[in-house]
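Data availability excerpt. The first of two example chains:
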Amino acid sequence: MSRKLFLGLILSISLLFVLAACGGNGGNESSGEGSEGDSSEGSDSGSDQSISFTAKSELPSMDPSLITDSVAFQWAGETYEGLYRLDENGELAEGVAKDHEVSEDGTTWTFNLREDAQWENGDPVTAHDFVYAWQRAVTPDTGSEYGPYFLGGVVKNASAIAEGEMKPEELGVKAVDDYTFEVNLEQPVPYFDSMTVFITFMPLNKSYVEEQGDSFSTEADNTLANGPFKMTEWKHGEGWKVVKNENYWDADTVELQEIDVKVIKETSTAVNLFQSGELDQAELNAEFVDEYRSSEHFEVVENPYLYFFKFNQENEVLSNADARKAMSMAIDRKSLTDVILNDGSVPANGYVPSNFVTVPGSDGKDFREVQGPLVGHDVEKAKEHWDKALEALGKDSVTLELMGDDTDSSQNAMAYYKEQLETNLEGLSVKVVEVPFKERVRRDQEGEFEIEAATWGPDYADANTYLNMYLTDGQNNNMNYSSEEYDSLINKANTELAQKPEKRYETFMEAERLLIEEDAAVAPLYQDAKSQLLRSNIEGVFPTATGPNFEFKWASVK
């Protein structure tokens, strides 16, 4: 997400996210007759396999090594292809890799690559492209956030390289030959193949990247695709266009010829453009859901994206656990999802979302079902914790800053948070600060916030993608939370228990209880779903959990 993260298209597509997340079918189901004024006419481009979609923010970058937001995840995920993709059932589908083998000790993964994969300029995609890209992602001079985060502690020597202690050439990756890619891990990682779907693991054409220099992936003309689509137009602040990549190895499967993406922050504008036939998709907020619920174009897309409060414990008030617990308990999550959002989202009662991963040895039970609720709305207890916090702090009133996105749906939620906190916690004043998505991401990375209305989408299909965020000094911590006990539990789950799945998940659950119930380091608020209008003659567009928010490879206009 994933700074995932909805999100983006879904986060922003948190916008736009970023954030979003694995499996599920976003197929279009007719729910009745269209509402008054609902146009069922498709856009003029529909008949020639061209569609138009919305995004709620600009693309910060299309460089796979530098991308941290879900908007770029979405569109780089369509123009690049790694070892695997995800199909509509959330299962791994062939990408550049045809298959792979894993050594008995679980530390050596050998990927057999197809020989017909090409870059859009005709160059072959080889194992050397993966070696270069992964080395580049952990090289300090690159400035990648996710390279050290995802490869560190996973691929051999990645952490030491990221810290400048070893050379990039010592990373545990090797091109055995042009079409055999070998990866050596620090320790067994049972979900490693799922990780390779993430954008940081995409290949890069070394000669092209070095030829472009600092201009690489900053304009459409400076991008080079090996995926189903390629970028041909990028009007900063307005939108971009991707078209079918005829040199893609599976081009015969790709029916769409063009996707025109327009940056539109206001829901009303997007709906008007959909109604006039200028857009084929428009995300809805609460104001429009009831009006269009009966439209044949209406659908709800569920995602394992979590929205939550991040508490920066550098702040004196937020360093107090009772203050954090009080703010978490003060929010009525059901009213938030049912009234304010009204888009299919559901209250979150833990940090690992529901319908995301099953617990080993539980007969297929969902993580949330086995763990049970860890947080909820309780005004009386909230007041008790708040009074205790104020007494410990020697204060009778405090002012805290709450930072969030500047989209209209986010603004509604932010106003609700302010009302709930100030009404239920006497003496608390909340100053709402709404910033563009790109600026929120920057402030998050720099720790420049007090409370952040944040979001996270999974980067691979394992509970660790949520729970390892809060290791001491972790790259996605950024809020000064530190717990030796928590660190120990997460490290234990990923080392000595790596090949003992049942005990590993028992340890994850213990860690989540510590994070949410005892420390209230973050406050889960709701699990995302998006209501949208999608032209009913568009088929095969579906959400994924750990790749792009939506997958277009198999889409078509009927």
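And the second chain:
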Amino acid sequence: MLSVSEVLELLDAVVAESDTPEPATTVGTALSADDAAALEGRIRNVRDSLARWRRRGQELSALFSSAHELAELRDTDTLLDRLVERAHDLLGTDVTYLSEFHEGRDELRVRSTSGTIDSSFRQLRVPPGMGLASKVVHTRVPQWTSTYQQNDDIPHEPGIDAAVAAEGLVSLLGVPLIAGDRVLGVLFAANRSGHTFTPDEVALLSAFANHAAVVLQTTSLLEQARFAADEADRARAVLADNVTAMERASAVHEDLTAVVLKGGSAEGVADTLSGALNRPVTILDRDWEPIADALAGARGLAAADGLSGRVRGAIAESRPSGRCVFVDSGAPEPEVVVAVVAGDVFLGAVLIGHGELELGAVEQRTIERTAQIAALVAVQQDAVAEAEDRVRGELVSDILRGDALQRPDLVRRARARDVRLDELRSVVVVGVPAEARRTVSVALRRAGSGALVGERDGVLTVLSPRPEPNDVAREVWATARRATEAPVLAVAGPPAPSAAALGESFEAARRCAQLLQSWQASEGAVDAQAYEPYLAVFGSRQRDLSRFIDSVIGPVLRWDEERGTDLFATLSAFAESHASPTRTARALHVHINTVTQRLERITGLLGEGWREPEPLFRISLATRMRTLIRRHATDGPADAR
């Protein structure tokens, strides 16, 4: 029997933390040598079990502490880094790293490392089915090796082998991170020397990986929830902005509709849009001239030297679609332009300056609708202008007709347009191409000189109260030239002593304009009275004029007709060249001897004295009239061109 003291001494020997148990002195003296050796073996086994349980308790404590710490993290990147650090401390291996599994591509990428020295290892990508990591993912159980490079059971890949060799890794243990039915990744513990991983190490790393997988999935779900919440907040903010923009657009549309219904103008459209966007707005007409500005200064967004090439290019780009086009430039040029079109007809453009309000889809649509409203206003104004043109044209025609019975009605109609019939004294006929006639007519009416502008038989006519027709013609010509690039001919008729004489003055100016345009003289301001001699001849009856031409140069014309020659051209050039053979030769681009021979032939036809001043004057007039008649017959009436 052992005494109490001997039992206590034996228990102390068992719980001692020394690796080599000391002999049980008191007990050992009472036992034989074989019994004492057996007792020491039993004490050693019990000590090993107690040490293993102590270590397991420490590992479990560290495991639970790590799991608790990881559960408090909410950022995925931070969580992965901390997870790898804890696993590194827990197993005490040389290197610990985590590879994230991308299920759709069936590949793994290293996301976090601890203990690595080679930077390329942190960007390692594991192709599908390769390496120890793919084996862990596909089997969903831990995999380990003591000699990675020599292990033929692992699918080797040159890139992976090079990264492992560069890091000097020899033994590796990988455990899966499994959450539900998904593999999130693989957690690795590796040493740079040969090492056989014990079941306890595998179990410990697996337990840690199981906790980490749950925390990682929870964190991922929380991040997704936060992302969804943020997206919802952004969507609500966008929705609120869109609602505000839609309300603003609706208000602008109502205001623009009111502008149209009230017979408003481009100024009202510009003011409405500028107030809604808090930006400068300029509206251009079909001639690229500003007709309305809001918050944009004197000439608005159209510079004093005209629109830049960038702005014109943006307007041209907008014309086919009528959509907003952004201009790649800064202030003072516009930020956005949109063409004002009605079908295929270009009516102008809306220019939007820079401002604080962002031009989103709703704002751009509002600008485009404003351009449509501007087109509607322009078409409406065009219709009114055309109606007014017809009314003014009828009034001008009635005044020039000089019907005394209609005088009271003419006085009333003229007074309705701020014109006093009895004060009209000057008539100016304006010759312009048909396509520019309306533009010039609008410009002359806008000049506001108290004149009456209209058309008579397709001829643009100005009736002015000023007593000097030539002064009126010069001002009319200057105004028209500013409005169009086409040639402009302003012909002043003789001063009219009364309104009843305006018709005669018009006829003189009209015939002079026809004469000058037949001569291809379609530019400038002229006095019809200066061309009175030509008007007297050209205004006679066609039969009498033909007889005059035949009596003067008939032999030459018949000679050309019978023989297919062109002595008439030589005769005409001789008259235009002041009876100089040398100048005639230069004008006809022939040798002077040729001209001399032709002149001798003409002498034989017209007689010896045809070069005398008086006959030559009649010949010159006949050739000029012959040329005018032929040109007039070929081109048609001058006022129709």
